[in-house]
Design brief:
This protein has 335 residues and is of the alpha+beta class. It is 30% helix and 32% strand.
């Protein structure tokens, strides 16, 4: 760490009491990821000490809503028989309250977005990429392709163990002496609550699923706006469609390995249509299956593939079909 960058200097920066040269040094210091995390920690501490700098977003929004309620926009004397004449809107003719309210709303939204970025550290993967993450409580996450995981920057492992997942990830959760719950939240109106276990969570637009390898988890979800829950045991697979209708089945031992673990793919009665979805979500490929009968063919087997082209070749050989890739488009057809 640059010895010239201290907490006192950063606090002065937040208060806008530093020189241009000092700002440049801080910008260079922030290029290192570790320093960026330290910066966020000091920002949280500084904001706690200086509450006058916090944006009162909820108060501003409530005041604006109340103003609109008390001052409804009406046109006196309007008639359906008389064509309306629209005045040309000029910024300098607008009432001051409208300009002020717009500024407040923009600042409020910006403040909420920044606070979310400040509160959570976000891990992301691109198509065909995976990332291994070790959380501060000792739990491990394997973030699969085209996915994101949000983890609180502060308090994780002490006051809470809640993360937010979009996409797919394999979790190995560490048990804590105080039996603290580990919660995986999603945008699919369901969350997985565990104590110490290994499981996989999949949450994308077309649906969701949870596979439990070890331990015990509780799946909490909403169906038709009604809160429901189901307790899973090892080997259980729970799937939810876009409306959160649930289905539960028991998997074979060979199906419990995390998807893509060590570049190994295991297909057990997996339709070619499901494989096409996986290729689209994990690798960004647009897959065209030429007929419905071919889409319903079942793929079974376990094999290793170091890249997507090897995966496509293996699919072609297993089903004895033609698989042709051109850029990000793949055509699957009978021979």
């Amino acid at each position: 760490m640059d010895s010239e960058i201290t907490k006192e200097l950063i606090f002065s920066h937040f208060a806008r009491n530093i020189s241009p040269l000092q700002r440049e040094r801080i910008a260079n210091w922030l290029r290192e990821k570790a320093n960026e995390e330290q910066y966020y920690e000091w920002l949280e501490e500084w904001e706690t000490r200086n509450p006058q700098y916090r944006t009162q977003t909820e108060t501003a929004a409530q005041a604006y809503t109340a103003f609109l309620t008390d001052n409804p926009h009406t046109e006196a004397g309007w008639s359906a028989d008389v064509p309306a004449v629209l005045a040309v809107s000029r910024p300098w003719n607008r009432p001051f309250w409208l300009v002020a309210a717009s500024v407040v709303l923009v600042a409020s939204v910006a403040g909420l977005v920044f606070r979310h970025q400040l509160r959570y550290q976000t891990y992301t993967t691109t198509f065909g990429e995976t990332q291994s993450i070790k959380l501060v409580d000792g739990s491990r996450v394997r973030l699969n392709a085209n996915s994101s995981l949000q983890v609180p920057r502060w308090g994780f492992g002490s006051t809470t163990r809640e993360v937010v997942l979009a996409g797919e990830a394999d979790f190995s959760v560490t048990h804590t002496p105080d039996d603290q719950k580990f919660v995986v939240k999603t945008a699919k109106n369901f969350e997985v609550v565990v104590l110490g276990t290994e499981f996989t969570v999949f949450a994308r637009k077309r649906g969701a699923r949870v596979v439990l390898n070890k331990g015990k988890v509780q799946l909490q979800y909403q169906e038709n706006k009604i809160a429901k829950q189901v307790t899973m045991k090892p080997g259980d697979l729970v799937t939810l469609d876009p409306e959160n209708h649930i289905a539960l089945k028991t998997l074979k031992q060979s199906q419990l390995h995390p998807a893509g673990e060590q570049n190994r793919f295991v297909f057990e009665e997996t339709t070619l249509e499901e494989v096409a979805y996986m290729l689209q979500e994990n690798y960004g490929l647009q897959v065209d299956i030429k007929n419905r009968d071919l889409a319903e063919r079942v793929l079974m087997g376990s094999f290793q593939a170091d890249n997507v082209d090897q995966l496509l070749q293996s699919i072609s050989e297993l089903l004895d079909i033609n698989v042709v890739r051109q850029g990000n488009r793949v055509q699957i057809m009978d021979k």
